[in-house]
Amino acid sequence: MSHDRPLQIVSGSGSYVQAGDGRTLLDLRNGFGSVFLGHCNPEITDALVQQLGQVWTTGRISNPTVEQAYAKIEALLPSGMRFAGSYSTGMEVSEYAARVATAHTGRRRLAGFARSMHGKSAMTAALSWERTSLGNSDCHILPFVHQAAESEILNQVEDLLAHHEIAAVLVEPIQGSNSGFEASLDFYESLLELCELHGTLCVFDEILTGLYRTVPLFFATRLTRMPDILLFAKSMGNGFPMSGMAVRESIETGSRTLPGSTFSDSPLAAAAAGACLSVMERLPMEFLVDEIDQAVRAAFLDLPASAGTVRGRGALWCIDFADLQSSGRVRAAVEREGILISSQGSAIRLLPSALVACDVLGFALARVAAACADESFRKDTM
Ligand SMILES: Cc1ncc(COP(=O)(O)O)c(C=O)c1O
């Protein structure tokens, strides 16, 4: 059967998906990193099925499934932070964080770092990657480590914050949608200090990195202090849409900040999230993700620099080819070998499930590394 038709996925189970043409593919794409505990994880599926027969939505009136899930999220949070609400998507919760910050500080401008991903609304786009969106004048884009030295970026942050007009700086600690660029821990520590000094809130967008994706519970757990606002989403519902926000206890998120939407506080999303967090509670998540981290490092250790720059940690990796064609070609090549990955811009992205078997992952990574090497050879001989 020809494989030229666009790929269609008809079902998924654990680390694998079944394509419409009958092929089984190992999934290292996992719904853009939302499926972290395997497709149709039985415990999460059971919780959803049970909730489907009870109630789907209550118009944000209290519900036991929602209360239980929120208690689990609250229990996970670093001390000094509280759970401040949920939405369905990452973009919505980023927007909410911006509104909370403007209400808290009384300021109306925001800053973000170039080519971060916080969503595709007018504000979130204007904050990081698109200069044509509405609201540009209130959003300032700072350079990130792919454009300037950290010291230079911090100087620019300081100059900007010194005007005391910026309500919040949003930061994506690993730019998962931009080739995996990441600043040093010292940079993030300095950013937090500068924000505190100038009365600006620091928002860590951990929509992708949160919930063990980079080994610890949150990327920010590796810092000596927590940001003012923490956003998380993808892994929380294992593919069922749910995003959440935690804030420093002193930050108000009451009715003045108009929390929630029609679909937030959904019992169905809460059923998925509650079951997902129960599974995570029982698993040695940090150990599992650290094993993935080591497997990826080992697989790409010998990759020549000409075959792509490897960036990432834990279960979030990008291999950057610096040109826009190679990533698509490598993605297509590994897909022909039964491995599903994504490509974004000049990079391919690997987002394994925490539960992928080590031997299976090791084999797949070797195939991806070989495809990267072939691509480099191809370019050299062109
Ligand atoms: C770090 C980060 N923040 C925010 C978003 C936006 O989330 P959504 O697509 O659910 O709006 C994404 C999506 O990829 C993301 O990776």
Q: State the fourth-level CATH superfamily of the largest domain.
A: Type I PLP-dependent aspartate aminotransferase-like (Major domain)
What would CATH call the class of the largest domain? Alpha Beta
Low-confidence stretches: none
Number of domains: 2
Give the N-terminus to C-terminus distance in angstroms.
31 Å
Helix content: 25-40%
Hetero groups in this structure are: pyridoxal-5'-phosphate
Give me the secondary-structure category.
alpha/beta
Could you tell me the number of beta strands?
Answer: 17
Average of per-residue pLDDT values:
95
Supply the number of helical segments: 11
The largest sheet is: 7 strands, mixed
**Shape label:** globular
Q: Secondary-structure element order, as H and E?
A: EEEHHHEHEHEHEEEHEEEHHEEHEEEH
**Spatial order of the strands in the main sheet?**
4-12-11-10-7-5-6
Second rung of CATH, namely the architecture of the largest domain: 3-Layer(aba) Sandwich
Measured on Cα atoms, how large is the radius of gyration? 21 Å
Give me the CATH fold name of the largest domain: Aspartate Aminotransferase, domain 2
Strand content: 15-25%
Can you walk me through this structure?
The chain is of the alpha/beta class. It has two domains: 9-33 and 284-381, Aspartate Aminotransferase, domain 1 (Alpha-Beta Complex), CATH 3.90.1150.10; 43-282, 3-Layer(aba) Sandwich (Aspartate Aminotransferase, domain 2), CATH 3.40.640.10. 37% of the residues lie in helices and 19% in strands. The protein is built from eleven helices and 17 strands. It has helices at residues 30-33, 42-52, 64-76, 90-105, 122-126, 150-161, 185-197, 267-282, 285-300, 324-336, 358-380, and strands spanning 9-13, 16-19, 24-27, 81-87, 109-113, 139-142, 166-171, 174-175, 181-182, 201-206, 229-232, 243-248, 309-313, 316-320, 339-340, 342-344, 347-350. The strands form four sheets. Strands 4-12-11-10-7-5-6 form a seven-stranded mixed beta sheet, with helices on both faces. A hairpin with a 2-residue loop joins strand 13 (309-313) and strand 14 (316-320). Helix 2 packs antiparallel against helix 8 (267-282), helix 6 runs parallel beside helix 7 (185-197) and helix 10 packs across helix 11. The longest helix is centred in the last third of the chain and has 23 residues, at 358-380. It is globular. The model has no long low-confidence stretch (mean pLDDT 95). Bound molecules: pyridoxal-5'-phosphate. Residues 32, 89-91, 94, 117-119, 172, 176-177, 205, 207-208 line the site of pyridoxal-5'-phosphate.
